[in-house]
Amino acid sequence: MPVQASSPVSALVNIATRLRIDSVRATSESASGHPSTCCSAADVVAAVFFAEMRFDPKNPRLEDNDRFILSKGHAAPLLYAAWAEAGFLRRDDLLNLRKLTSDLEGHPTPRLPFVDVATGSLGQGLAAGVGSALNARRIKSAYRTYVLLGDGESAEGSVWEAADVAAYEKLDTLCAIVDVNALGQSQATQLQHDLEKIGGRWRAFGWHAIGIDGHDMQAVLDALAEARATKGRPTVILARTLKGKGISFMEGKPGWHGKAVKKGEELDRAIAELEAQFVKTDETLVPAAPTVVSRPAPTRAQVTPAYTMGELVATREAYGTALAALGAGDDRIVALDADVKNSTFSDRFEAKFPERFYQNFIAEQVMLGAAMGLAARGAIPFPSTFAAFLTRGYDFIRMAAISGVNIKMAGSHAGVSIGEDGPSQMALEDLAMMRAQPNIAVLYPCDAVSTERLMVAMAYHQGPAYMRTSRPKTPVIYGADETFAIGGLKVLRQSANDVATVIGAGVTVFEALKAYDILQAEGVAIRVVDLYSLQPVDAASLVRCARETKGRLITVEDHYPAGGVGDAVASAVASEGFTVTRIAVREIPRSGMPDELIDHYGLSARHIVTAVKA
Prior knowledge:
- The protein is α/β, with parallel strands linked by helices.
- It folds into three domains: 9-275, Rossmann fold, CATH 3.40.50.970; 312-475, Thiamin diphosphate (ThDP)-binding fold, Pyr/PP domains (Rossmann fold, 3-Layer(aba) Sandwich); 490-613, Rossmann fold.
- 37% of the residues lie in helices and 14% in strands.
- The strands form four sheets. It has a seven-stranded mixed beta sheet, sandwiched between helices. Strands 1-2-3-5-4 form a five-stranded parallel beta sheet, with helices on both faces. A five-stranded mixed beta sheet has the order 14-16-15-18-19, with helices on both faces.
- Helix 1 packs antiparallel against helix 2 and helix 12 (364-376) packs parallel to helix 13 (394-403).
- The longest helix is centred in the first third of the chain and has 22 residues, at 9-30.
- The model is unreliable at 1-6 (pLDDT under 50).
């Protein structure tokens, strides 16, 4: 049986060579990919996988496995080659790279069990690594997290947001490795091989920085040992490498990014050069086993709303109350904030569970990225901020959707109803951007009871979800025993004589109810619907309402016309031949009093009455 070698340099050199060969062959077979960046990082990856990390290669999702996150996702063939070397994949599988029928995609996704989060949109891996390391702390596991970044991607601001939070949290189980190969896609990187300047940046953020020759295997091993021994702060290893290492016509040369070696003479030459680099050794390496800890099975929280009918409660406040109640019943629930906890009311969770509350300050990208990392490792994270500020982290939201992780986002202070703060604070596009991702559940409760009930549904929904909460206090209209399902709606008013269906969500539900009372006094009956779930949407009920009210559907939303309530309803009923009259905010708003703004931008009851009569 092979054993873990005490001085495995020769064996690791051979593993690195095989990783290069496999990466070159796979990309040549697909006639696309990034072999040059695989070759530069091969020595580091060989050392991390086969001399440093502790994991079970037959069970990649094991809770106590060390984690490896490939932030420079275009080096995917190198990752796949490492897992083939570990025995999880067959080497023949690597030749299916980038094929429609294969999960070995051009950039990694969690379709593969050894991939925690999708990468390839550069600058996201370190934030996910922060979340992974926080999760190790949460479950009291010894597992470590390794993140491989490119030097080019380090120009992304999100890398430094993550670096800042990692140092603040003293995440000494987090080790970043930067492949400093000095070449970007179109030109040399900003700092090229200047490890002193690069290291100075990381040290300024509070990291322990180690500069090494990334092709000196003993230096790589020594740096990894130093990182493991460093306590109280995270470590970054800056590995000076050459793009295309080991292939004479590619090594250190520009113009090879995203370019596969051509089959035939060029490929034969590259493989021959690499095979000549094997060294003689009898050592064979396998990954070291992790320390596995037995833990109790998780429990599901129960939340019982405690409100009286007519009580005025903002849904953002009910969110905070429900979040704390969820945390009491399930220790997988964690909360992340970006310095607005006293406005989103997530501070109610912090007050009870400070060890599961993670402050990211005003850095929404790392908040979302860390939530992705936490979710990938089994936590149920609730990152929350003003809905308008989630737009800054939308690429992370997009990648969370691709990853399919259990991230539970909440955006408060949405729409003109926030009032005096003005348009920079008024999220009027958040529903559209969330609905644009086909697997994000999008929820918009109108009162405290529906908020709390939907929080539970959201927590245990498999996949990403978003809840829009509101700043104004709204009356409780549902009893504590009312049930809410993702994908449902509530018909609040109806009769056999309804001449139109008015569909609201959040604050506009109450404007629709006011319009109902006005029209009822005039002898006109309308149906009122609370569309609390915009994705998935209850198309069957909406079509039934359309049929029963002569095809007259009116939506009213505190959102721009594109992508929100109106579009959700229109797409649900279009196949049955129905159209929708949409009331929405149709211009850039301005500051004012909430009720004044709702009326000024056409969302108030009187405008709904006019639309019904029209």
